[in-house]
Amino acid sequence: MTTTLITGANKGLGFETARRLVAAGHTVYIGSRDAERGRLAAERLGARTVLIDVTDDTSVAAAAKAVEADGGLDVLINNAGIEERSPDGGVLGPEEESADMMRRLFDTNVFGVVRVTLAFLPLLRRSAAPVVVNLSSGLGSMTRVTTPGTPTWGYPGLIYPASKTAVNMITVQYAKAFPGIRINAVEPGYTRTDLNANTGTQTVEEGAEIIVRMAQVGPDGPTGGYFDVNGPLPW
Ligand SMILES: NC(=O)c1ccc[n+]([C@@H]2O[C@H](COP(=O)([O-])OP(=O)(O)OC[C@H]3O[C@@H](n4cnc5c(N)ncnc54)[C@H](OP(=O)(O)O)[C@@H]3O)[C@@H](O)[C@H]2O)c1
């Protein structure tokens, strides 16, 4: 029996991933920073729920303790993420994005990944086939951002792409440091969720495909990679 925790799984890609992994037979924890939203989502899926705010050390430590007490963890999906948008849902440009905004966004998208991974590392090390999936983005690809003519090149924002490039680096360095764990970054594709004011062109079913796939890699599967649904991506 595989036990999986997905942070920020009360809605969006995390929720759809939880739905699919429950169907695949995983015992799934819906990580939610709001107890009621987590409870309602878990109830809909026949999943468990755990309260976890990825920006809060105490909350993350308590979540790790609760999951450990319930039997441990095999798969961690670092999914919780945010993107700064203007009140009308538009993407902000570099002049509108301050250092304070960057600190706030990095606390969730980047420091959250470090905080949660380190807290759950002792549990993952006790698993026979531990896996970590980090939610990156195509916007984290330095190659794509510097290739004129691609949609990624045309994205004007600063902080969100920088956060996902950092997630890619964290993925690579963790994969080297923890060779017993399969650790990969994934790009779900531009998916209609609250994150982008529902402007995405894909459904959550399409977006969750690569997350679900990388959550199920075996001990011989890839590690330290960056994938979308069609295969490896350029860094
Ligand atoms: N949608 C896309 O096109 C796209 C593309 C590439 C990558 N991604 C990545 O995919 C991941 C999921 O995004 P999504 O599109 O599904 O967005 P979403 O629908 O807005 O869901 C984001 C989830 O993260 C949770 N969250 C935010 N801050 C948190 C915190 N401090 N602690 C715990 N949970 C927190 C949210 O909880 P609340 O409900 O409490 O706010 C929500 O459950 C993100 O990492 C995002 O960057 C998305």
From TrEMBL:
Keyword Oxidoreductase: yes
Keywords, sorted A to Z: NADP, Oxidoreductase
Record flagged with keyword Oxidoreductase: yes
Pfam assignment, any one: adh_short
Highest taxon above the source species: Bacteria
Gene3D superfamilies (UniProt xref): NAD(P)-binding Rossmann-like Domain
InterPro entries noted in UniProt: NAD(P)-bd_dom_sf (IPR036291), SDR_fam (IPR002347)
Family affiliation: Belongs to the short-chain dehydrogenases/reductases (SDR) family.
Protein name listed in UniProt: SDR family NAD(P)-dependent oxidoreductase
Provenance organism: Streptomyces polygonati
